[in-house]
Amino acid sequence: MTIELETRIRSAGLRVTEQRMAVLRALETHPHADADEVRRLALGELPGLSLPATYVVLNALTEAGLLRRIEPAGSPARYERRVGDNHHHVVCTGCGAVDDVDCVHGAAPCLSPSSTSGFRVTTAEVTFWGLCPACQAAETTTTTEPERT
Ligand SMILES: [Zn+2]
Ligand SMILES: [Zn+2]
């Protein structure tokens, strides 16, 4: 596992560092984590890892193609290691949970706009919005409207 990670980092043209390893490991178990979550997950391996340092690592890995960054409206950027396929995301409007949605067609772009204004379209990034199972369960157990604060 460690060897495989090192090989991946190297073949992306990056130097292998403890920080890069720790960030990739954190995202292995927690896909779609934001920078703060990644930092907290990596702290076990790298005590003292700062948030700015985490961003530097995340940006380098994203630019090298090892990570994908998704930015659902109204939520901080999230990162994942599932790159290179044209999958989409479903985001919970209640709690912000994110999950993967496989591309219906499998190949990019899965959606063909009727007019592209001359653009050559290569990818389509779709965000589906809805309520996750936990929020649906909470909704059905609540008999009254949630209290406004
Ligand atoms: Zn939810
Ligand atoms: Zn994903």
Automatic annotation (TrEMBL):
Its main location: cytoplasm. One of its GO terms (cellular component) is cytoplasm. One of its GO terms (molecular function) is DNA-binding transcription factor activity. It is found in: Cytoplasm. One of its GO terms (biological process) is regulation of secondary metabolite biosynthetic process. Binds 1 zinc ion per subunit. Its cofactor is Zn(2+). Belongs to the Fur family. This is Fur family ferric uptake transcriptional regulator. It comes from Herbiconiux flava.
